[in-house]
Specification:
The chain is built from 4 helices and 6 strands; from the N terminus they run H-H-H-E-E-H-E-E-E-E. A hairpin with a 5-residue loop joins strand 4 and strand 5. It is of the alpha+beta class.
Amino acid sequence: MQARKDAGFTLIEIAVVLVVVGLLVGAVLTGQELIGSARVRNLASTSAGIQSAYFAFVDRYRRVPGDWNATEAGEALGVAVTGGGNDNGRIDNDSGSVWAEPNALWEQLAKAGFLKGEFAGDAVEPTPANQRAPLNPFNRVMVLGRTDDYLHSGGAPPVRLNLVLGRGLPVDLARELDIKIDDGVPDTGGLRLTVSSGATFGEAAQGEASCVATGGGGSQIYDIASDSQDCNVALLY
């Protein structure tokens, strides 16, 4: 009688499978890194573009977009303008609604040709679906306004005009963005982590508390170990 052969895998077959699995895992990880880096570049480019658009508008019209009253803005721009402010020379959060002037800002920038998109400009809270504000690469709302809702080393932060880049940012990408355009520290420089609660603009201007940790010497650091997927940062003007 002929002896039955075992039906197991040979060492060569197992080695080939492991190599293929390793290549697939490496390809997936590399792809994720490339996507993440592309999103960081997108955020850096978008934030720089919005900042340039804001100051170009001020330079051309000698008015603050969003603060300019709708009637005069419409006459100057040659189009119908829905949203506007009280002409006090700054973006306010209390002119009837916290969203009135911030939303009007996007409408006026777009209708002046400084920003792509169509925005309603009214005082309705912006969402990813209602076209009141631009969205970041993670499909979250961006906000430009005057607040103190960001981390600040050495005491209470001053109220400053800042662009909130929106939620949904993984903590490692938040750190990468900070290194790319600023100092890599979450509570100093021109780019800061936002607060995790009590923001003027609510959840849209907040991020998870686990995005930041205390490092050596008591300094604040991006908490990469937390693997938070919902950080938020503000670019100070």
